[in-house]
Structures are given as C-alpha cells and as structure tokens.
Amino acid sequence: MKNSNKYLIFFQIILLATAAFLLFFLLAKDLAWDGKLEMQTDFRKFTPFFTILKPQDRIIIGNMAYIQAEPAYFDLYLPRDFDKAILEVEYKNEYNYPIKIGPSVDSDWELKSLSSDLPPDENGFTIKSVDFDLAGKNINNGKLRFIISLPGLLEPDKGVYIKNLKITLLRQPLWQDNIASNLISYLKYVKNQF
Amino acid sequence: MLKINFKNNKVLAIIIQDLFLAFLVLFLIFSLLELLKPRIITNYINLNIFLLLLILLGVIAILFQPEEKKEIKKLNFLDYSTIILFCVLVGVLIFYLIRAVGILSILIGIASAIISCFFIILIYKND
Q1: Cβ–Cβ of A4/B11 closer than 8 Å?
Q2: Which of B2, B18, B36 comes nearest A12 by C-beta?
Q3: Which residue, A20, A86, A135, B3, has most beta carbons within 10 Å?
Q4: CB spacing of A30 vs B43 below 8 angstroms
Q5: B13, closest residue in chain A (CA to CA)
Q6: Which residues pair with A143 in a beta bridge?
C-alpha cells in the first residue's frame, strides 16, 4: 500500500494539473489569446457560435439551408470584443441574385455584395469572402445580427442554397497588445454585454 | 512502470473517487463561470456530456466504495472557519446572481449560506 500511495499522489498531481490546464485552456480560448477565433456553420442546427437562419418560414433545412424568401438573418455570438470579422460563404446562386450580407449597425445594416468573379464548382457552389470592421456594430448580450439580402427573390422555388459559412474573428493577440489592457477590455466587454 | 494491484479495491476506489472529485469541482467551476458569462464554457465543451460523465463516475464511485465503519470526526476551529468562509462565499454568490429580485435576494442568500453550512458540516463529520 505504501508503494501504491506514492503512485496515487502522482496520479492526484497529474489529475490536478490536467484540470487546471483544461480550465486555463478554455479561458485562454475565450480570451482569443492568439488574436484569432474561427468558427463555422452549415445552418442546419444551432451551433455554439451561430443560430440557424431566421425567420424559419423563409428557410428550408435539408442537406443544406435553402433560402426561399428574403431577407434572412442569423446571429453570431461573440465571446469578446474583436476588431474585424472575415466571412467566407459557400453558396449556390442559380438565378444570379445580387446577394448582400452584413451586420447590424445602429438601426441599419452594413451590406456588402457577395457576387463573385470566380466560376462556380461542378455542383454550382461559389465561395466568396467579405470582411467587416466590427467597431460600432450593434452587439447586444454578446450577439451580433447579420442579414442576408437577396433582392429579386420573389418565387420560393427559385431560392439560394447556403452550404457553409466560416467566420474568422480577428483582434490583437495577447502578447502583442498590453496584456493588462487586453484583459481590461475583455472584462469591460463581459460587464457591458452580460 | 506503474504497478497498482487493482484487485485491491481500496486503490481503485481512491482513483475513482479522485476522478469524481476532479470532475465535480470542474463542473462546479464551469457552472459558476457559465452563470457569470454565458457560453464561456459551452462554446467549447458540451456540459451535458460532462455532467453525464460526472454522474457515471459518481455511480461507479459508490459501487467501488469500500464498506467501513467510520468514526464521526470532530471539527476544530480551523475547520469551522473554513466552512463558514465557504458558506459566506456561497451566500454572496447566490445573492449576486439573483440580486435583480430585490430584498428577497438578501434573504435567499443568507438562507442558502446557512443551509450549505449545515450540509457541509454534516458531510464533513461523516467524512
């Protein structure tokens, strides 16, 4: 039992270190310590950072999300304050609508065009990325609403498929910025939003 | 080379109990963090799966518990001070979380501190 005790203490230390590391890792991830946070969704179900596309009567969810009436919305949950968001959308626009996407700003939307010069792949899907400055955007309870506008979409059977959305959020990494001011801005965000 | 005699249930029981305690403490910390900042943990970890693992470990820990007759522990001044400090913290935390309720939140905070104090002393005395 004496020998076992030695191993048990070793086991307990390892267990404690693992638990502390897990906690530290999760907090560091939420702080976006490397200045980058990547997330993606196919809008088929709620994911930690995204809602599904709304309102639900304008969307059909099958193998992928199908927008049959416009506009559609989704919410993005931001764990902290970020400077910039890069959206990469994979979509199928068979009827060439001038698709626009953008976040909520005051009582309006900052819309950017999704039209792409690149030819679609063999299945008709195109990937296009747009970026947005996140300063001054309407973030409520850590949630930022985006709109997908499809002017001209009037017939439900002539909609647009959204296969995937990848968002990369960027800010100063923890080691480049002043660590104290970085942590203060995180705490301020938490205090103001939650 | 790790040579633990797993036929000796005491060692296995201690390992499982330690695992259960680690999971329990982590779960409590995670839940507290989730209350203070929603999605801080659930963005990265599914807490339902974590809770399921915790329950499973708890069940296994009970099954492996060696049957021993234990003496009732006597608490010293340090034990009482620690327990009271912990309970005050619990009370303050609960008050903070439900402060929007108003004056009732103070009463609930005090009540929860007293209840947790009784429970901890009861558990501590029975080890």
Answers
A1: yes
A2: B18
A3: A86
A4: yes
A5: A8
A6: A77, A140
Average pLDDT over residues A103-114: 92
Asked whether the bond before A103 is cis by omega within 30 degrees of 0, the reply is no
Using an 8 Å Cβ cutoff, are A170 and A87 in contact?
no
Is the pTM for the entire model greater than 0.95?
Answer: no
Buried b (16+ CB within 10 A) or exposed e, A21-60: ebbeebeebbbbeebebebebbbeeeeebbbbbeeeebbe
CB contact under 8 A, A4 and B39: no
Chain A and chain B share a number of CB contacts under 8 A equal to 57
pLDDT of A114 higher than 90: no
**Radius of gyration, alpha carbons of chain A:** 21
State the amino acid at position A168 in one-letter form: T
In tens, the pLDDT along B22-69 reads: 998 898 899 889 888 989 999 999 988 998 998 899 888 888 777 666
Taking an 8 Å cut-off on Cβ atoms, the answer to whether A79 and B43 are in contact is: yes
For strands A139-140 and A112-113, give the pairing: unpaired
Q: What is the pLDDT of residues A48-67, one digit of tens each?
A: 899 999 999 999 999 999 99
**What percent of chain A is modeled with pLDDT above 90?**
79
Q: Is it the case that residue B4 has pLDDT exceeding 70?
A: no
Instruction: Give the best residue of B39, B46, B47, B50 to mutate against chain A (max A CB count within 10 A).
Output: B39
Q: How far is A31 from chain B (nearest CA, A)?
A: 9
- Distance, in Å, from the CA atom of A147 to the CA atom of A136, rounded to the nearest integer, reads 17
Average of per-residue pLDDT across A186-191? 93
Tokens of B74: 């006597």
How far apart, in whole angstroms, are the C-alpha atoms of residue A85 and residue A36?
10
Q: What residues of B are in contact with residue A7 (Cβ under 8 Å)?
A: 2-4
CA distance A191 to A131: 27
Beta bridge partners, A161, equal A66, A92
